[in-house]
From TrEMBL:
CDD domains (UniProt xref): MopB_CT_Fdh-Nap-like (cd00508)
Lineage, opening ranks: Bacteria, Bacillati, Actinomycetota, Actinomycetes, Kitasatosporales
Name assigned to this protein: Assimilatory nitrate reductase catalytic subunit
Family matches, as Pfam families: Molybdop_Fe4S4, Molybdopterin, Molydop_binding
Record keyword Cell inner membrane present: no
GO aspect biological process, one term: respiratory electron transport chain
Cross-referenced SMART domains: Molybdop_Fe4S4 (SM00926)
UniProt xrefs under InterPro entries: Asp_de-COase-like_dom_sf, MoPterin_dinucl-bd_dom, Mopterin_OxRdtase, Mopterin_OxRdtase_4Fe-4S_dom, Prok_molybdopt-oxidoreductase
Origin species: Streptomyces atratus
Length: 702
């Protein structure tokens, strides 16, 4: 068993937030305070956003969880010992399983967990709990593009090229990705490119674009089909590339040909001239266009729809038709959101996957992983429910009666939040492992205080598939344990062999490498030693006699399907799951802002973030506000068929007249997810956060 490395006076690690994983150097300690500086890491090259600079605030949060809590007979959470807390959890899990069977216990993970935690969580669920009921919050933010990428290319890695390649781009189309706010250091790589931004809002990113296409919410796929239509009619397809490297363009074109530009304008609101200019810019057909490459990059705005997989596929079709993916002079990529959104979906915390990014229904994959785990393949459960389906089933007949949550805050981040909160409240046992008392932790029967980024070792995989070392600067507070230690301790209490659940990160990683060997995301050639010498390693990186250099660029010679060719998808626009009506006449779309991250559990504890964005707001066009009787800076109620939230009005003349925007980082009555729609993409299970039909009403000041 490995030892934890000694703590260092100065530590090179990475920001705890988004998938860019900017390089940082930490100095100081808990007593004098932790200072952060950016390093010259390839993705951030000496820059950080506000969230990165202020991340140490969360280490010193006044309400940091430092002792286990158990809910007593009086209904209050009270401090207790680790033994009492873990015994309570183990006894509760045993009781539920005895009464209702193993699938009555569920696990909910997170896209911010390290690779080691994601791996051990999946193993713990499937062996120690013998449950199929495990999924994670990454289902909410990447699963549609991941599925579309797997189907198109045979392999999903957010960006199949390093972000540095974008520096030579001539044109970049950003669809549903506001990187100027969500990943600001990434903008430096796009300084020389002409940007086309597809977004219903004039975001900070759209403000820097040469061309902003502003479609009505939920019509992105109609726009993608229309752009392909123009490329076909204007003779801009890369016929040689299509012939050599793809299959299935006929079906994609058949669908696109019914989306002529005027029809697309009538549905999306994007003028024909702007559609045409976008295609010509991407194809390099503009007068004076240089020979730099073109890229199509998608984000949550494309994915979080009831047909998000098809919408992502529509943009992939466009990129393939123009000959971009794997060409070495352009490409397609998906901008993963959460810190370990990429690694988090590769190591087995998804309902349908085993480590190595393997399908849980593939007999060969089951045999391999079972062999590494030392159990017969038939002992591994099958696929479980996707994240929202799992939350929706909690406490129901046949649904889970007990839930363990690691690294997630679904009471704020899940759609139709009031329903999810009722489901959480109906459980026999809710256990939350976290480092701050999130809104979900406050509902728990047992709260387990765990380490955070600057107190722990591990690895994460950023949006480029680059595997990174997280390194500890300082020890955690005295009674705080690592998530790995918690899983180990719980497994032992449930009668599992202690050596089956490595509590030391390097040991967990070495086991993960073996489990991933031969899989789609093969980490077997990556080690802590190689990473600690400064090697930059992108998966796949198989074990080899001569150390494999990793794969920064995928698909240059062939795609990952057995015949080496990419696949077009035959997709059709059907509109959003919920459309506007006289009762709910406006589209509401939700998203992130510069100051906050995800459910806000961390950044709402940061002074600068609170100063910049202290309360929920709704962005509204002044004419729309006037029609609803709203005043700038006044309070408004935003109501859908699911419920209402309260927000401060911000007038913005760049908003569409039919659309309002609400950030989703705030709790309580300010939760955007009180109005969001729980419709799921039928193939990826991703919720349709981006389109809800709402109405606005003015509220008096409290
Ligand atoms: Fe952290 Fe992302 Fe900001 Fe970089 S861009 S500092 S990784 S939040």
């Amino acid at each position: 068993m490995s030892e934890l490395p000694a703590l260092r006076p100065e530590t090179d690690t990475h920001c705890p937030y988004c998938a860019l994983q900017c390089g940082t150097r930490l100095t100081g300690d808990r007593d004098v305070g932790v200072k952060v500086e950016p390093t010259d890491f390839p993705v951030n090259r000496g820059r950080l956003c506000q969230k990165g600079w202020t991340a140490p605030d969360v280490l010193a949060a006044a309400d940091r969880l430092t002792r286990p809590l158990v809910r007593g007979p009086d209904g209050r959470l009270t401090e207790t010992s680790w033994d009492t807390a873990l015994d309570t959890v183990a006894e509760g899990l045993r009781r539920i399983r005895a009464r209702h069977g193993p699938d009555a216990v569920a696990v909910f993970g997170g896209g911010g967990l390290t690779n080691e935690k994601a791996y051990l969580l999946g193993k713990f669920a499937r062996l120690a709990l013998a449950t199929s009921q495990i999924d994670y919050n990454g289902r909410f933010c990447m699963s549609s593009a991941a599925l579309a990428g797997n189907e198109a290319f045979g392999l999903d890695r957010g960006l199949p090229f390093p972000v540095g390649d974008l520096r030579s781009a001539r044109t970049v189309l950003l669809a549903g990705a506001n990187i100027a706010e969500t990943m600001p250091p990434l903008m430096q790589h796009l300084e020389r490119a002409e940007l086309i931004v597809v977004d219903p809002r004039r975001t900070a990113t759209a403000g820097r674009a040469k061309l902003h296409l502003q479609p009505a919410p939920g019509t992105d796929l109609a726009l993608a089909l229309g752009l392909l239509h123009i490329a076909v009619v204007d003779g801009l397809l890369d016929q040689d590339y299509i012939r050599r490297r793809t299959r299935g363009i006929e079906g994609a074109v058949r669908r696109a040909m019914t989306w002529w530009p005027e029809r697309v304008e009538s549905i999306t609101g994007v003028p024909v001239s702007a559609q045409r200019e976008a295609v010509r810019m991407l194809a390099g057909a503009e007068a004076g266009a240089g020979d730099g490459g073109a890229y199509v990059l998608t984000g949550r705005g494309v994915e979080q729809h009831s047909r998000g997989t098809d919408t992502a596929a529509g943009f992939i079709n466009l990129a393939l038709a123009l000959g971009l993916p794997g060409s070495g002079r352009g490409g397609y990529g998906c901008l993963t959101g959460q810190g370990n959104g990429q690694g988090g979906r590769e190591h087995g915390q998804k309902a349908d996957q085993l480590p190595g990014y393997r399908s849980i229904t593939d007999p060969a994959a089951r045999a391999h992983v079972a062999g590494v785990w030392g159990v017969p393949p038939e002992d591994l459960p099958g696929p479980g429910r996707s994240a929202y389906e799992l939350l929706d089933a909690l406490g129901d007949d046949g649904g889970p009666r007990g839930l363990l949550v690691f690294g997630s805050n679904p009471a704020v981040s899940a759609p139709h939040a009031s329903h999810v909160v009722r489901r959480l409240a109906s459980l026999d046992l809710l256990v939350v492992a976290d480092f701050v008392p999130s809104e979900t932790a406050r509902m728990a029967d047992v709260v387990l205080p765990v380490t955070q980024w600057a107190e722990e070792e591990g690895t994460l995989t950023n949006l480029e598939g680059r595997v990174l070392r997280r390194r500890a600067l300082m020890a955690p507070p005295p009674r705080v344990r690592s998530d790995l230690q918690v899983l180990h301790d719980l497994a032992v209490r449930l009668g599992e062999p202690p050596d089956r659940y490595p509590a030391v990160p390097q040991d967990a990683f070495d086991e993960l490498r073996a489990a991933s060997r031969g899989g789609r995301a093969d980490y077997s050639g990556i080690s802590y030693e190689r990473l600690d010498t400064g090697e930059s390693l992108h998966w796949p990186c198989p074990a080899a006699a001569d150390p494999h250099p990793g794969t920064p660029r995928l698909f240059l010679d062939r795609f990952a399907h057995s015949d080496g060719r990419a696949r077009f998808a035959e997709v059709e626009h059907h509109g959003p799951a919920e459309d506007i009506s006289p009762a709910y006449p406006l589209y509401a779309t939700t998203g992130r802002i510069l100051a906050h991250y995800q459910s806000g559990a961390q950044t709402r504890r940061v002074t600068e973030s609170n100063a910049a964005a202290p309360e929920p707001f709704v962005e509204v066009h002044p004419d729309t506000a006037a029609r609803s009787g709203l005043a700038d800076r006044g309070l408004a109620r935003v109501t859908s068929a699911r419920g209402s939230m309260t927000a401060r009005v911000r007038l913005d003349a760049t908003m569409r007249l039919d659309t309002v925007f609400v950030p989703f980082h705030f709790p309580g009555e300010g939760r955007a997810n009180l109005f969001t729609h729980p419709a799921l993409d039928p193939r990826s299970g991703m919720p349709a956060f981006k389109v809800s039909a709402v109405r606005l009403e003015a509220l008096p000041e409290a």
